[in-house]
Amino acid sequence: MSALHIKKGASRHSAYNLRPTFSDVDERHTLAVLVENEPGVLARVIGLFSGRGYNIESLTVAEVDHTGHLSRITIVTTGTPQVIEHIKAQLGRIIPVHEVHDLTVEGNAVERELAIIKVVGEGKERVEALRLADIFRANVVDTTLGSFIFEITGTPEKIDAFADLMRPLGLTEIARTGIAALLRGQ
Q1: End-to-end alpha-carbon separation of the chain, Å?
Q2: Tens digits of per-residue pLDDT, 79-125?
Q3: b/e burial code for range 147-180 (CB count within 10 A of at least 16 → b)
Q4: Exposure check for the chain: N or C terminus, fewer CB within 10 A?
Q5: Half-sphere exposure at residue 119, Cβ-oriented, CA atoms within 13 angstroms
């Protein structure tokens, strides 16, 4: 056997090839970005994504420190691990950005979303909509003789499942807040 052949079961990796290998498979990541609460910051963050053709699946922004004038931007995006690393590096270079955390990598995160859903129906559909809302722990926040508006909080998957069940019962409109997320534990 020549020296160029590798024995069966032997590693093909060399000690000289120390660069990390990245997958070509898109992954979903939740990023938490702490920024100065000042005009134009959100536009710069969004511009980073749009300028490079990256998609934002969910975006929420709110001031989290009134005295320090800091806001938290929670972004859900997808991309290959290399793209996600590039996004995090670029976000960290924007001047009013204080911190960038990849909640997907840093540990288990609690993710929640709020949705309000309008369902129009009468008779059996109306009764079934109320029964399902009870199972999903959705609250009725408005009602008329012909419609309900439900409020539901939970994971995006829970909200998707509730909406899918409400469609045949008369779902006409839905508004979603986007994901808010925090790491578990200390």
Answers
A1: 56
A2: 999 999 999 999 999 889 999 999 999 989 999 999 999 999 999 99
A3: bbbbebbbebebbeebbebbeebbbeebebebbb
A4: C
A5: 32
Question: 139 pairs with which residues across the strands?
Answer: 151
The model's pLDDT over 22-55, given as tens digits with 9 standing for 90+, comes to 568 889 999 999 999 999 999 999 999 999 899 9
CB neighbours of 14 closer than 8 A, spacing ≥ 6? Answer: none
| Average pLDDT score, the chain | 88
Two tokens, residue 81: 């691990």
Cα gap 35→95, rounded to integer Å = 9
Which residues are CB-neighbours of 97 under 8 A, at least 6 positions away? 33, 34, 35, 41, 45, 91
**Per-residue pLDDT at 16:** 54
To the question of pTM greater than 0.70 for the whole model, the response is yes
Q: Which domains, ranges and CATH numbers included, belong to the chain?
A: 27-106 (3.30.70.260), 109-183 (3.30.70.1150)
Query: From CA 135, how far away is CA 121, in angstroms rounded?
Result: 19
**DSSP per residue, 38-66:** -TTHHHHHHHHHHHHT--EEEEEEEEEET
